[in-house]
Write a structure and sequence with these properties.
Elements: H1 3-6, H2 9-21, H3 28-37, H4 48-71, E1 76-80, H5 87-91, E2 98-102, H6 104-110, E3 120-124, E4 141-146, H7 155-168, E5 171-179, H8 181-186, E6 216-221, H9 226-229, H10 234-243, H11 246-250, E7 253-260
Parallel strand pairs: 1-2, 1-4, 2-3, 4-5
Antiparallel strand pairs: 5-7, 6-7
């Protein structure tokens, strides 16, 4: 895999780590894949603090998808940059058709651990063009999540992706996490993704810059809600709350919701 694709092992490790500890997520699939793959993370990539952050972030995305799916039962779910994530299993596909999208080599690896079904399909494609959308016949409404992806795309590429989605679907709800401009600058010197060879990332401070036409910014979400911080105890709870939550964290990392209705 190339360096960007290798970043998928960082959140995979985080989810496996918190699942084994019984906090934030119940993710036996992440535990299974991490145990089988044995990818050699090093340095900051294997920090327990980062693992907590990856686990809490994924739990927030899961909860958002569940809420949207309950409200919009005829929507399809699209997970862009799915990596090896088991969100489709954690959330389920009772009412929705679900599409996991990533690069061909990632999907090839993913198919070792996941099986397609009537309600679940994996799509090999580059989201920087719109060819992958031809595999999605539904056009009415989509619940779209893009976790840990936007920082590897230029502003123009994110803008074109959401334009392609808007051209395909009548309605969209969309959630993505973003680096700030400061975080992107600091990433050149200190970021766990450096440990797998990634050195170029992008950030944004004003979420309204991604708006266009009917695609509008709705609100910002909290990346590490207090209820997840409270699952930790003692000094771990204190340090995690100080470094990965509140105003300090917001200077580096944001979570934005958009919609086309």
């Amino acid at each position: 895999m190339n360096s960007v694709n290798k970043t998928l092992y960082i959140p995979l490790y985080g989810k496996a780590y918190v699942s084994k500890r019984g906090i934030f997520l119940d993710d036996k699939k992440a535990e299974e894949i991490w145990e089988a793959e044995g990818f050699a993370l090093k340095g900051k990539s294997k920090s327990k603090w980062l693992a907590y952050y990856m686990g809490a972030r994924s739990a927030v995305f899961d909860e958002w998808v569940k809420n949207q799916a309950a409200d919009i039962q005829d929507a399809v779910v699209i997970h862009i940059g799915c990596g090896m994530d088991s969100r489709v299993l954690r959330v389920g596909t009772i009412n929705q058709k679900w599409y996991d999208v990533d690069f061909a080599e990632v999907i090839e690896e993913r198919k070792k651990y996941y099986s397609e079904s009537a309600n679940y399909q994996m799509i090999a494609g580059d989201v920087r063009d719109d060819n992958w959308l031809t595999s999605v016949p539904e056009k009415k409404c989509a619940i779209v999540v893009m976790e840990g992806v936007s920082m590897y795309l230029t502003f123009k590429e994110v803008h074109e992706l959401t334009e392609n989605l808007c051209a395909h679907f009548e309605q969209i709800v969309f959630l993505m996490d973003c680096y700030t401009v400061l975080a992107a600058k600091l990433s050149k010197y200190k970021n766990p993704i450096n440990d797998v060879g990634v050195t170029e990332v992008y950030g944004i401070n004003n979420p309204e810059l991604f708006q266009h036409g009917e695609f509008v910014y709705v609100k910002e979400h909290i990346m590490t809600p207090q209820k997840y911080i409270d699952e930790l105890t003692g000094i771990e709870k204190y340090i995690f709350g100080k470094l990965y939550a509140g105003s300090f964290s917001k200077k580096l990392y944001r979570l934005f919701e958009y919609r086309k209705m």
